[in-house]
Specification:
The structure is a homodimer. Chain A is mainly alpha-helical. Chain A has two domains: about 55 residues, Arc Repressor Mutant, subunit A; about 130 residues, Tetracycline Repressor, domain 2. The first copy, chain A, contains ten helices and no strands. At the A-B interface, helix 8, helix 9 and helix 10 of A face helix 8, helix 9 and helix 10 of B.
Chain lengths: ~200, ~200
């Protein structure tokens, strides 16, 4: 069988994780085996173990990569001088793009985190809770400053994040709506619905 | 073991389907067996088969019950003289209440329909497509009549239905937000975001 080929700038491990994300999306993390993964990558299982020890290691890499991306983006936005509504728009747009461009990673991180072993599980959930709290604080601030309608911030966060995760069904559909139309209209709906 | 007890006004079959819905939610349709179900209901498997032939029969009953509820409600709303925006509000409110009051049924119909056997599967998907098309037509009409903002109707439908299905995570949370707060704020957000 072939050796594991790496794309320019990606390590072999990254190539394996990339392929694993497609496999987990297709079969579910629980049902996919290391043997399936070796087949998917196109190498012997023994060769796979030179780069990666377990499915769990891959899941950790995916979940924490996604968490880092979202957290770093939010920190950058938070430290900008923009008004709260504009900050929220930037964050919503980033979520939508992540759902489009890194769909497998985001999907797995959203749906398979339950399989993370401790202490990663608690750590991941903690980061998730903090992230949602920051979003909800941002909305509370927007309401205080009269930039946003007086809506319960927790319900607003639930509405926003759930709406965006619905892009899953766009991926599985015939995509009669273009990426741009989807992004711009969802932003318009979710920001317009909050704007005072 | 106990006999299958029926609530007032529910047949034994209905009681079984009710219990099955909780089991399917907990274990997933694929993983739950008729033996699990018998245990859950508190009867011998043989006794269960007097009322119901297979898991599939239960899934069909659940999916088509939910589809009928949504379709009947939409037909009643459509035939009312209300403006499009008010019609949409009634439909959104109904979806939110279904997610709260018939959560197991709606969840199973949303997540497990793939396990329906033919011809039920095609029929179910057909009804689903038609339902979404009616919603999207309603929004297109609202835009034409200048009651709603100029948003892509397909993206609006995706946003609305995905946001509402996020109530799943409310069920699994500590419910720091009350039902009423959730319903009223989500309606306010989703209708306010469309209103011109």
């Amino acid at each position: 069988m072939a050796k594991i080929r790496s794309k320019k700038n990606s390590s072999k491990k990254e190539v394996i994780i990339e392929k694993a994300s497609k496999l987990f999306l297709e079969k579910g993390f629980g049902a996919a085996s290391m043997r399936d993964l070796a087949e998917h990558v196109g190498v012997e299982a023994a060769s796979l173990y030179n780069h990666i020890q377990s499915k769990s290691e891959i899941l950790q890499a995916i979940c924490f990569k996604v968490a880092n991306d979202f957290i770093s983006h939010m920190e950058a936005v938070q430290s900008s001088p923009e008004p709260a509504l504009k900050k929220l728009e930037l964050i919503i747009r980033f979520h939508i793009r992540m759902m489009m461009e890194q769909f497998e990673f985001v999907y797995i991180s959203d749906h398979e985190w339950r399989h993370l072993p401790e202490p990663y599980l608690s750590n991941f959930l903690n980061q998730r809770r903090n992230y949602r709290r920051s979003l909800s604080d941002l909305i509370a601030r927007g309401i205080e400053r009269n930039e946003m309608k007086d809506l319960d911030p927790h319900v607003a966060v639930l509405t926003i994040l759930s709406a965006i995760s619905g892009i899953e069904s766009w991926h599985r559909s015939r995509k009669s709506v273009s990426r741009e139309t989807l992004e711009n209209n969802m932003v318009k709906y979710l920001i317009g619905g909050l704007k005072k």
